[in-house]
Specification:
Chain lengths: 193, 193
């Protein structure tokens, strides 16, 4: 039987208690960094000449069960912005972890400067239900028709109705991105509830 | 020195090539599962009586650099929906991994049925810039004033201007959620570009 300890229990002082639990005011950049990493997608679209482009996007979310809607938030300065407005279609592609080099190129170069898809070595395949092509080999792709849009500051939200889905279930590990544009492959540890 | 193998090199047939690289059509539920896990937040708001509520939300994203805007997508049936419409404020709290039990309760119970914050054992602290309180001990919290909204199918997008940020940088590991409402703590493995 273990000898009963004669030491007093450690009781945290009020000061330590507040140091642990008090919320700190943060700068915006610190707060954004703490909220990441975020799922990272490549949005394909057609430009005014019908040429496909792929841009890196982290500002994406689902927004309705029925109908099945997804929204993306696109900077007004981005090359893809005019094309999505014109053609009212886009595809949300979740690049697999083996496509990280291409994903970096699509997220750091501009379509204003040339054919990023060629530069990144990506292959395109016909989508099921839209003219905009899907990127071959991605984890999953959502084909969208724009049904609404809303200007939000320096971006525009495009709301897309999902009209086709394809993917590669055996490549389930897709990419996440930090606020400093570092790409991550995320290993999830399930938390017991 | 190893004996040179006399076996012929294995050349994948065209059939295998297509089996590896061809995209599969997926059901919507399969596609959604493949795109997760998603960052998981607790949105605090006030109800019509000024009582705070916290709901689990995975449909959240930033939507403008300047002004700093965040949007959340809220189901019309959720208890928090009317309160956010009325008070035009909400706080996006990223629960830390040590708050997973409380995060499950806030994401699986309804504010229609009682005080979830009490049930979950969460403590609230005054926000810096809005009346809606912040959840103590979260990784990071974004205080938002609603500047616009858009109905998207069975949800409404609330666009929030971020007017305050607080957090606990030492609790950087926050929660992610799968499409089947399993919670994950994510360990990021940086992908070299």
């Amino acid at each position: 039987m273990a000898k009963k300890s004669s030491r007093r229990l450690f009781i945290p002082s009020q000061d330590i208690f507040f140091r642990v639990f008090k919320m700190q005011n943060l700068k915006e950049s610190e707060a954004v960094a703490l909220s990441g990493p975020f799922p990272y997608v490549l949005v394909t679209s057609l430009d005014k000449n019908g040429r496909p482009n792929a841009m890196g996007v982290a500002w994406v979310t689902r927004t309705s069960f029925d109908p099945f809607l997804i929204l993306i938030s696109i900077d007004h300065r981005r090359y893809s912005y005019e094309g999505i407005k014109m053609h009212k279609e886009f595809v949300v592609n979740y690049p697999s972890i083996d496509q990280s080099d291409a994903a970096v190129i699509c997220g750091s170069k501009s379509g204003h400067d040339g054919d990023k898809i060629k530069l990144a070595g990506l292959k395109l395949v016909d989508s099921v239900s839209v003219k905009v092509p899907t990127i071959e080999g991605v984890t999953v792709a959502f084909e969208c028709e724009v049904v609404d849009q809303l200007e939000t500051g320096d971006h525009t939200v495009f709301v897309g109705k999902v009209v086709g889905t394809s993917g590669n279930p055996e490549k389930s590990r897709h990419l996440y991105v930090s606020s400093k544009f570092q790409l991550f492959g995320m290993d999830g540890n399930e938390v017991p509830a």
